[in-house]
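wait is this the right file?? whatever heres the structure
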């Protein structure tokens, strides 16, 4: 059942022992949502915990490194920024995939089977929705909550550069800064601070660059052994997805990441003339108009052929 912000706040106020699910390979939006909501619920005297995946990038530690762990038997399950239960970590999916009471999301392609769904697909980031929910619960915004929400907003708007950025986005960001969010520091951590291992990995990946459709599509791929060569891991790969779209003349950027089982995770980043979500839905994926993803069986040539065929329907 689809619900609004007011009903969502009421549900959260009426439950306790809440477990919050975030998606695998977590980014700043899903983590920002999870920990902002956790902090708000704890301020209301409730027990709450985020089921955090193992492979969280160290750059996100400031979102949760001051929090203690609470032990309890979950009675209410909430997912944030999760468009499909397939995107949950295996452990979370097996334990709670069919027990989600409340899903909060901004992906138009959301297909989570939950008792209640708060979906605002015009929100630039799921953290914009969580902002409204916390405000509706009359929880006072503090610096920690503000930092969490600002992180999600700046992540999903590419530091306010993407076309999903709206006047609401700017106004919320301004209010979060008023509440203590350290915008310059967060933006530096998110977009300007890179580990040596990431720099090496990025070079290995960008060296695989291929151009297709008369230069309108750029494709790169990551072989699984590149992690060992660079000393990196999957948690550091997300920034690479946008690199190909930055090439002059490119309107579709494709990033294929080989997983340990030989399958490929595919990320699309597009300009306005191509709907990334519609392309990825052809391969049972989805996401947003400018950023989406899907998965495909290996080997690499098979995955490449399938995603290029899907993109080609737009770029013929």
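ok assuming it is, sequence goes like this
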């Amino acid at each position: 059942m689809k619900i609004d912000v007011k009903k969502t706040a009421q549900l959260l106020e009426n439950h306790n022992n809440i477990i919050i699910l975030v998606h695998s390979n977590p980014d700043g939006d899903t983590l920002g949502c999870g920990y902002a909501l956790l902090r708000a619920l704890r301020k209301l005297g409730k027990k709450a915990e985020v089921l955090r995946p193992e492979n969280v990038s160290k750059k996100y530690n400031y979102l949760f490194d001051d929090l203690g762990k609470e032990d309890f038997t979950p009675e209410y399950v909430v997912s944030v920024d999760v468009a499909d239960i397939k995107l949950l970590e295996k452990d979370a999916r097996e334990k709670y995939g069919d027990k989600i009471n409340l899903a909060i999301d901004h992906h138009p392609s959301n297909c989570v089977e939950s008792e209640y769904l708060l979906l605002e697909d015009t929100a630039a980031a799921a953290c914009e929705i969580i902002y409204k929910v916390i405000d509706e619960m009359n929880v006072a915004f503090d610096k920690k909550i503000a930092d969490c929400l600002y992180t999600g907003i700046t992540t999903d708007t590419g530091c306010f550069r993407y076309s999903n950025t709206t006047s609401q986005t700017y106004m919320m960001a301004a209010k979060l800064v008023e509440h203590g969010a350290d915008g310059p520091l967060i933006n530096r951590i998110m977009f300007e601070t890179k580990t040596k291992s990431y720099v090496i990995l990025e070079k290995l990946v960008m060296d695989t660059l291929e151009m297709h459709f008369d230069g309108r599509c750029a494709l790169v791929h990551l072989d699984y052994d590149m992690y060992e060569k660079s000393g990196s891991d999957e948690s550091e790969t997300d920034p690479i997805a946008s690199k190909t779209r930055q090439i002059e003349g490119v309107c579709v950027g494709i990033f294929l990441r080989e997983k340990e089982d030989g399958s490929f995770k595919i990320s699309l980043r597009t300009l306005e003339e191509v709907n990334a979500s519609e392309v990825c839905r052809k391969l049972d994926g989805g996401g947003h108009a400018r950023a989406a993803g899907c998965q495909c069986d290996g080997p690499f040539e098979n995955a490449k052929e399938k995603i290029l065929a899907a993109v080609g329907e737009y770029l013929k």
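The chain has a mean pLDDT of 95. so i think its the right one actually
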